[in-house]
Amino acid sequence: MDEVLQDQAEALVESLGKYFNIDGLIFDDEDDTCLIRFDEKNLVTLTWLEEGNVIMIDEFITTLSLQDRVDRHEIVENMLEANVFWMQTKGATLSMHSESGTVIAARRLPVYGRDGVMIAVEVLGSCIRDLVSLASQWRSLLETGEANASKLYPLDTSESDSKGFLENRG
Fold first, then answer.
1. pTM for the full predicted model
2. How far apart are CA 86 and CA 132, in angstroms?
């Protein structure tokens, strides 16, 4: 990462530390990441991807047991349903690694807007909070064996702009 981007990343991470009231939040310039621990279960990784100037936010949710992996069709179906136009994931994407059973939530955000201005710390902070909320809810559902997306964010498309779009895709 060049020096200008490095300085911007460090400034953004410092602002995030203030936003979340976390002392000592640092940007690791060796792998362009920052780890934010909210509690014993919620550890968010921010990765600044120079190519494309995006920030990847991700959080490990859980690792499914071998039995869960065998019976995972319903889980995967509910994850896919939640991912449709990100309506039930608050902009993130839920994913599962087929061999390990690892489930994660991730979101990519542009570092700069079309106007060339860097992402506001409030916007990034809100996206991180949404990701932590999503990961916590899915972790709870997967650990209790009730991975039903409708229990997270009941999908009321009656007022949604996407309802007609979904119906017309048919």
1. 0.81
2. 15
61-96 confidence digits (pLDDT tens): 999 876 665 577 788 888 888 898 888 888 999 999
Q: Where are the domains of the chain?
A: 3-169
pLDDT tens column, 103-137: 999 999 999 988 989 999 999 999 999 999 999 99
Q: What architecture is the 3-169 domain classified under in CATH? A: 2-Layer Sandwich (3.30)
Q: List the structure tokens of 167.
A: 């119906």
Residue 63 φ/ψ, nearest 5 degrees: -115, 120
Residues 6+ apart with CB under 8 A from 124: 12, 16, 55, 109
**DSSP character at residue 31:** T
Q: What is the DSSP string of 34-71?
A: EEEE-SSS-EEEEEEETTTTEEEEEEEEEE--HHHHHT
